[in-house]
Amino acid sequence: MSNQNQLVSKVDWITISLYALFVLAGWMNIYSAVYNPETHNWIFDAKFYDSNAGKQLIWIGTSLILIICIFAIDFRFFEAFAPIIYASFIGLLILVPFLGVTVNGSHSWFKFGSITIQPAEFAKTATALLLAKYINEPQVNLTKWKNQWFAAAIIGLPMILIIASNETGSALVFASFLILLYREGLPGEYPGLFIASVTIFVSALLLSPWTILVTLIVIAGCIIGLSPIYVQRLKQTYMKAAMFIVGIMFMVFLVDFAVNTVLKEHQRNRIKVLIDPSFDPRGLGYQLTQSKIAIGSGGFWGKGYLQGTQTKFDFVPAQSSDFIFCTIGEEQGFFGVLVVIVLFMAFLWRLMYLADQQRSRFARAYGYGVVGILFFHFLVNIGMTIGLMPIIGIPLPFFSYGGSSLWSFTILLFIFLKLDSHRSDMLSR
């Protein structure tokens, strides 16, 4: 009994309260997204559980069981068994192409009766655990090439296997581990290189190569012209600037080649729709256009709960899952959207604060892994519903419909809260 009381007193109830609020708000919006006053079934009606709202309620109930199980496990288990957990999910990702089923064009699911589970969602947690365990080793220094390559291998293996299952969106989430690595000593050049690569990629999609070339020349000329360069170094400076411009242009043409040759047609179309929503007016373009209409029609205060017309007439595909954010925008308006964003940013800030309070490097690194994954999902999901990100089909944490996503986010979060509750029992390092 004393151990239980100690756990209750040490667990972070602020984070748990925000989690409960998000899950409740998510379920209410899923309910609204599938609500039909003409065929409505009450919560005590068996037919209610044939709807997404009813199924999500079951997933929420089972998530509570998962939380209890996590808190019942010894906190040392997660670090000790991280390699086994990681290897198990790598094995499942290998088996998916052979034993899995296809859902919405993605062959990345296991089917057990009426239940489908996506191992890629849980592989994020497994990767965060093993990465944190590796970084916690005394000899690991992320400024060394050997350690950087090993960390990259831990992240890259599940990414490759997930891409092989045609689930590019979930694979891209693994890029969020750069936040974890940077916090634990990875040189700043790597995140900077990643941001520069994303900038070049977007620029190559939006601008012609000639426009980019002229822009680079002008920028280089301004920098050289305003810098105090000695005459004897002028030739060397021009050479470096020329090499830099050539390198950037090579990447620009590489992006063009990759988009038009390497990427599959549906992936290419998602990028084209981001640039021009009218490109595919009956497919992805339709989905994005209707999402924007739904969010914009909400105005400042929204139309009110269960009053969304775009929702009621099924204008937005996948509105209870990947596009749940447009339900919030339509029914709660700009004010409701702002509240969700502010609360989620406070939630992420709280997790970073808790991560920095950890005495164990393992717990701190894992905490930043949790922050990175949740932030990536949050940023990209909202971005794709308003047309700032390509539609890659990743859920909004705790809000979107789906058992795999809710379970995986719950496990991801509560493992960290379990570690945090035993902060004083861990050796500092």
Automatic annotation (TrEMBL):
The chain crosses the membrane at residues 16-36, 57-78, 84-103, 149-182, 194-226, 238-259, 333-353, 365-392, 398-419. It is found in: Membrane. The keyword Ubl conjugation does not apply. It is a multi-pass membrane protein. Keywords: Cell membrane, Cell shape, Cell wall biogenesis/degradation, Glycosyltransferase, Membrane, Peptidoglycan synthesis, Transferase, Transmembrane, Transmembrane helix. The keyword Aminoacyl-tRNA synthetase does not apply. InterPro entries: Cell_cycle_FtsW-rel_CS, FtsW/RodA, RodA/MrdB. It holds the Pfam family FTSW_RODA_SPOVE. Signal peptide: none annotated. This is Cell wall polymerase. It comes from Aquirufa salirivi. The gene is rodA.
